[in-house]
Design goal:
globular; Hypothetical Cytosolic Protein, Chain: A; three-stranded antiparallel beta sheet; single chain
Length: 91
């Protein structure tokens, strides 16, 4: 008998769609209160997930989804940095 593995699902804080964990990017708040993208998905800290779509980051910024999930105020320059990193991942 083959055992069926459960696929971990996460919700995008921008579009609120459930997707598999591998399809999403983890945004991380480190213990030092730095906000960064976690490419490995294994770094220590509080995480929130976003689609690889720049529109989802814009939606998360508008509805403050990242701020709610990470429980911290996020300055505009951090959003710009995340947007730039997201665009380089797509290329």
């Amino acid at each position: 008998m083959n055992k069926v593995r459960k696929v971990p699902m996460r919700k995008c804080v921008g579009c609120n769609e459930q997707k598999s964990k591998k399809e999403l990017i983890r945004v991380l708040k480190t213990p030092e209160d730095r906000i960064l993208m976690d490419a490995t998905g294994r770094q220590n800290g509080r995480g929130a997930y976003l689609c690889r779509n720049p529109q989802c980051l814009a939606k998360a910024r508008k509805n403050k989804g990242l701020e709610r999930s990470l429980q911290i105020q996020i300055p505009a320059e951090v959003y710009e940095q995340l947007d730039e990193e997201l665009r380089t991942l797509d290329e």
